[in-house]
Amino acid sequence: MPAKRTARVYRPTSANMARLAKVLAQGGLVAAPTETVYGLAADALNAKACRAIFRAKGRPASDPLIVHVGSLAQAETIAEFSECAREVAKTFWPGPLTLVLPKKSRVPSIVTSGLPSVAVRMPAHQLFRDLIRRSGCPLAAPSANPFGYVSPTTAEHVLTGLGTRIEYILDGGPAKIGVESTILDLRDPCRPALLRPGFISIKAIGAVLGQGVIAYRRKVRPRHAAIAPGMLEHHYSPRTPLILVKKLTRQSMGRISTDEALLFLKKPEGLSGKNIFWLTEDGRLEQAAHRLFKMLRQLDDGHWGKIHAELITGNASLALAVNDRLTRAAAVLPL
Ligand code: TXA
Ligand code: MG
Predict the structure, then answer these.
(1) Shortest-distance atom of ligand 1 to CA 38
(2) Domains plus CATH for the chain?
């Protein structure tokens, strides 16, 4: 028998916001929108509540959570800020940037998977900020999807993935950015390193720091995995096999059967067919990022034999972010 749906979707009325904030303050879970993707939130200082996040997602305890704060002062109660970290936070917060910093002892070890560091971010989304303010808690929140599946960018996505495992979903419409935050390792202010590409570029961060940021290496090495244990290659996988191509040529397309889908960044000129899809009309990267996860879900539900996706060229931050999420989705690893 299929599991019973337990979740209810709440509109952001003042009464509902007060109710959901109370659920959080009392140790419950609430899925809520941020500007990047929807998160599954709980009081970050309540170990039992955070354990429930791992259970609901089916997430291994070795994959630490991001803690969301409403102010720099609140961030400083959970993490040690160097002068540089403060500068970066003041420049990019509220916004889609997560900083990995030495943790303070009040953060339960379940949140950081036992690491001596904690990932912190101040989100820009008004509703999420309102939940932090009203609940009075810093909120631990991973993306609100079952572990290993595509991140949710709408309340409907959360309902589909976690509808039988949680009770409260706040609907704030589609997430604006659509890919998860940039993660910057600032544990050592002299060696800033990118752990996950996102909307905010290492060029912009480097300009504030006055030094270069160590670029992200997609190949996850064991040493790297110990720093970011959640950076598993198959993190975003749809169920349909996804194949990445640098460039889809007419010749290579000729070999692809019509029950396999083709995904382009930009509407391809002179090509048509039921199996042709694109992220944008004109190649705008903001739009590509905004639509990526929705498109992967749509294709995954479309009963295609395979999905062939063309990688985005160039070094723009969102091009790297989209390629990174596609690459993780395409990695076939034993479960
Ligand atoms: O945009 C986002 O960042 C969204 C929204 C909800 O804020 N959150 C999100 O969380 O993407 P999640 O759990 O799906 O990804 C967080 C990643 C994990 O994969 C983990 O590896 C990394 O952050 N992380 C967390 N704590 C860390 C730490 N102490 N050191 C290194 N990486 C850490
Ligand atoms: Mg995630």
Answers:
(1) 6
(2) 8-215 (3.90.870.10), 242-330 (no CATH)
